[in-house]
Predict the 3D structure of the following.
Amino acid sequence: MVSGRLGLFVLDLVSGRMDITPQCRANFDWPPDADFDYDTLLSMILEADRPQALAAVEDAVAQRTEYKTQYRIATPRSQTRWIVARGRATSDPGGRPV
């Protein structure tokens, strides 16, 4: 995963808490010891790209399908980077996305 700069994050849809790998932190230029949650992620996505990124995730959660999207972020050092993201929500035993 390192050579491809592939990072991984797990998002708790209830709390907004995210667990992210060191490579994911590097991709977002995020400090190793700083908290990173869904609100932080959303705030980093450039305003022009935010609606389609949110829609891709919300549609995938609602339809229980995989999402794939790309968007630009502004890093803490004011760099603009492209992020390609894909994933799928998991559900609890009652079928609710978590």
